[in-house]
Amino acid sequence: MSESTEKKMVRLRSSDGEVFEVEESVAKVAKTLQDMLEEDCADAVIPITCVRAPILTKVIDYCKDQVMISSSSSTTNNPNERTEQERKAWGQKFMEGVDSSTLCELLVASNFLNIEGLLNLGVDKMVSMIQGKYPQEIRDMFNVVNDFTPEEEEEIRNQNAWAFERDPYYKKRSSSK
Amino acid sequence: MRKVEKAERQWSTLPELVLDAIVRRLPSICDFLAFGRVCKSWRTISLAVRRDFMAAHSPYLLLPVRIPSQTFEFYSLQEKRCALATLPAYRCIGFSHGYLIMTTAYSPLLINPISMHAIRLPKPPNTYASYHATLTETPISPNWSLLLFAASSNLLQVFEPSGWGLEHTPDAWELMDLTFFENDLYMLSTRTRVALLRKASEGDEMKLQETGTLPHNEERDILGPRHVHGQGVNYVYRLVKSRSPAWEEVQSLGDRALFLSCKCRSYATLPNPEKWGFKANSIYFTRHNLWYMMSLDDSRMIRLQAELRPGTTSKMEARHGRGSSGFSLSAFKRSKAH
Prior knowledge:
The complex is a heterodimer of chains A (177) and B (338).
Chain A: E1 9-13, E2 19-23, H1 24-27, H2 31-38, E3 45-47, H3 53-72, H4 84-95, H5 100-113, H6 116-130, H7 135-142, H8 150-160, E4 164-166, H9 168-174
Chain B: H1 2-12, H2 16-25, H3 29-35, H4 40-55, E1 60-62, E2 71-76, E3 81-86, E4 91-96, E5 99-104, E6 107-111, E7 118-120, E8 132-135, E9 146-149, E10 155-160, E11 163-168, E12 175-181, E13 184-189, E14 194-198, E15 220-228, E16 233-240, E17 246-249, E18 256-260, E19 267-271, E20 282-287, E21 290-295, E22 301-307, E23 330-333
Parallel strand pairs in B: 18-20
Antiparallel strand pairs in B: 1-2, 2-3, 4-5, 5-6, 6-7, 8-9, 9-10, 10-11, 12-13, 13-14, 15-16, 15-23, 16-17, 18-19, 20-21, 21-22
């Protein structure tokens, strides 16, 4: 902090009360915060009411990386300076080991803070987790409650009796782990 | 444990925008349907984007059935693999306007395998063991009808929402195939004679009237794919528009690919096949559970790598027996370039 005194700092408070101090440029990766900062309505601590500390840490990691890319790549403020491959690999590494509940909180956070890149990473991760699964497997994985009444379930089951089911061969191959 | 409770609460209240982005990026129709069965809020989202999602996904090919079963296999051009659908009937006697035409105990049953919409029809006056059928319009529209015939009969049974009617072919032709395209009915007889039949006037009941000549309409092509057994070669013929209709071999399919069923009984043309990774001006067909492609550019036949059904043995050959090498009939709008 001391070596970058000329840089303006922003303080963010997570839902569980932890305060994070980050450079303004890092905070501005989040469009929601950028708008607040530009309207100058955030001089004290900005409360991020729906994001817990461990999630906010991850979000800040992402934002810092985005700032690093844009500052290292000439003048443009464009994170796409990395090659497509590098970005993909980085994104995969960033989302590696993210479990389903963390993923959910990350999605909520990136949606609330309006960080498009992070939201895309989360959505892609979620899609890859859902892919090739049956509804009950998806519910188990994400702890989603089946809130259909037995009658509704029956109705959907009847409809889906004619709908496409997965190829069992594909199933075998994809669940080899 | 607290974490789990938290997640539970959050997943079902995930912002609509996020769920919308997720469902749109699901790679296949199977995943899409599974998503919609998870919980109420996910179902609402999936129903809202259903139309867009389906439009963005490739057509399915219905694979030939070897053993009578209610499980049908659909091959996704996009995913290059099969999906299974359990349908409420054993036999599929045709497909038209997005609907499969099936029969249970001689009664036709129309099913859209994607929307699950089904229409059960009463038993036709004449029942045959083997039917073929086509629709004149989508059964959602008010004036649709179903044309039903048995091979080598001279009787065409027409179902309209008011009920069944019977028509006899002109000169007691023996019907081999028919197709309905843009208010015209094309019929093929056993002696490879082709007739065009139309409604007497708009809004009239379907009355068979042989016109004698084919219309000089540059906008459409009538194709007759023909499989020659033993050689394993497929030819495509085009109906020549003249006073006495005749077949001529097609030299080019233009920007379309043709997908043939194993008996050549039916086929589908796909415009702009490059979009799904297939080559234009090519014929795709199955033999021994393998894909083959024949390019009309150089008439070369190539075996494609993808197997249709891993781990199954071929019994498809037996299905070729009936009908020997025969034409089937279909029509499509000709592309502007040709």
